[in-house]
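Exercise 7. Given the encoded structure of a 350-residue chain, write a plausible sequence.
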C-alpha cells in the first residue's frame, strides 16, 4: 500500500509519544519540585498523567480503532475540563492559554482521529493479504519508542535535579532562627504551632484558617468557611498573633509578639548554601530577581518537610493570598487552599 496510507499511523504514534513525553517531563519535574518530601508513594501521583498517556499509546498501537475512540472521548473530556478550569482562574480563556496546553490536551483528539484512519488502512492491508516482512524489532519499534523516550526523559531530568536536591544545606536545627536577609533581620519561629503545624488530616492550615484562628470559637477547625478573612484579620486574629514568646505554644488570646511575614520579607530571606540569595520582591507575581538561585534549605526551610511554599501576610485579592516558593517564585492561591505543600512560618522582630 502507498506510504500515504501508513502516514496517519506514523503521525498518530509520534504525536502520542510526544504527549506522553511532555507529561513525563512535567510529572518528573514536579515530583522533584513539589513532591519531594511527601511520604511515599504520594510523589508518584505526579506521574499519573504520563502513565495514562502511556496506556493510551500501547492500547492504540495494538488496537488502533479502540485506542482512537478512547483518545477522542478522553481527550475531549480532558480538554473541556482543563480549558474551563483555566478560564475560571484567569477570568477568561486566552489564545495563549489554549495554545500552551494544546500538545497535552486537544492533540489527543487529533491523534485519536489519526488512529481511526490507521485502523481502517490496516484492515484494508490485511484484507489485501499483506504480511509483515520486516524484522521483529522493527515491527515493535513503536512500542520501543513509546516506552524508551519517556524513560529517557525521566533519566535526564533525574540526573539534572537529584544532585542539588541531595546536597541541600541542612544544619539540622529546627528551633527559632535569627535570619539576616537582604535588608531584613527577623527571628523565625521554631518547629511547632508557629511553623508548619501539621493537621490530623495530613496537610497544613489554609490562609483562611490561619487568619481566623483567634476568632470565636478559637482554633483552626471552626466552621467559618462562609467568612472572608482579610490581611487585617491575619494581623489581629491570626494564629501567629497568639503564639507565645518562646514560639512553642498558643495562648488563648492574641499576644502580638509574632506575626505572619510579608512577601518581601520572605523573598529577601531566601538562601542558597547557607548564604543569602540576594532576592527582592518586585511587587508582581512570578520569578523574582536573585543574585543566586535560592533553594529549600535551612535556616528558613526544613529540607525534609513537604512544604515548598510559605503563605505571606498580604492578600492578592478578596479570594486569593500570596505565597512564596523556596526558589523565589511569588504566586497567589485561594485563601481556603490547604495541602501538604503550603506551609507557613511566623516571625518577630529581634
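Solution.
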Amino acid at each position: 500500500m502507498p506510504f500515504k496510507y501508513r502516514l496517519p499511523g506514523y503521525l498518530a504514534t509520534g504525536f502520542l509519544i510526544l504527549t506522553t513525553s511532555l507529561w513525563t517531563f512535567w510529572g518528573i519535574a514536579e515530583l522533584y519540585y513539589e513532591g519531594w518530601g511527601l511520604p511515599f508513594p504520594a510523589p508518584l501521583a505526579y506521574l499519573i498523567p504520563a502513565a495514562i498517556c502511556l496506556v493510551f499509546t500501547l492500547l492504540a498501537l495494538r488496537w488502533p480503532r479502540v485506542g482512537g475512540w478512547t483518545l477522542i472521548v478522553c481527550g475531549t473530556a480532558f480538554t473541556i475540563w482543563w480549558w474551563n478550569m483555566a478560564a475560571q482562574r484567569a477570568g477568561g480563556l486566552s489564545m495563549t492559554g489554549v495554545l500552551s496546553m494544546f500538545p497535552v490536551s486537544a492533540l489527543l483528539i487529533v491523534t485519536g482521529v489519526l488512529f481511526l484512519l490507521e485502523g481502517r488502512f490496516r484492515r484494508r492491508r490485511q484484507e489485501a493479504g499483506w504480511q509483515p516482512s520486516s524484522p521483529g524489532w522493527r515491527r515493535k519499534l513503536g512500542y520501543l519508542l513509546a516506552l524508551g523516550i519517556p524513560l529517557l526523559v525521566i533519566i535526564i531530568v533525574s540526573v539534572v535535579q537529584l544532585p542539588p536536591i541531595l546536597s541541600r544545606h541542612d544544619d539540622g536545627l529546627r528551633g527559632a532562627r535569627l535570619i539576616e536577609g537582604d535588608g531584613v533581620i527577623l527571628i523565625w519561629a521554631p518547629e511547632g504551632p508557629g511553623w508548619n503545624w501539621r493537621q490530623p488530616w495530613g496537610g497544613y492550615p489554609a490562609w483562611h484558617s490561619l487568619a481566623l484562628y483567634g476568632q470565636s470559637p478559637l482554633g483552626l477547625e471552626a466552621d467559618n468557611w462562609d467568612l472572608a478573612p482579610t490581611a487585617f484579620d491575619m494581623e489581629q486574629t491570626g494564629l501567629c498573633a497568639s503564639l507565645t514568646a518562646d514560639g512553642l505554644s498558643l495562648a488563648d488570646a492574641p499576644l502580638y509578639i509574632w506575626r505572619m511575614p510579608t512577601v518581601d520579607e520572605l523573598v529577601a530571606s531566601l538562601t542558597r548554601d547557607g548564604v543569602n540569595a540576594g532576592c527582592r520582591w518586585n511587587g508582581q507575581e512570578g520569578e523574582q530577581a536573585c543574585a543566586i538561585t535560592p533553594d529549600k534549605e535551612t535556616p528558613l526551610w526544613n529540607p525534609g518537610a513537604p512544604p515548598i511554599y510559605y503563605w505571606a501576610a498580604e492578600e492578592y485579592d478578596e479570594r486569593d493570598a500570596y505565597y512564596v516558593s523556596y526558589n523565589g517564585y511569588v504566586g497567589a492561591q485561594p485563601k481556603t487552599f490547604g495541602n501538604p505543600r503550603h506551609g507557613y512560618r511566623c516571625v518577630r522582630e529581634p
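Remark. The longest strand covers residues 309-315. Students should compare their own answers with the one above.
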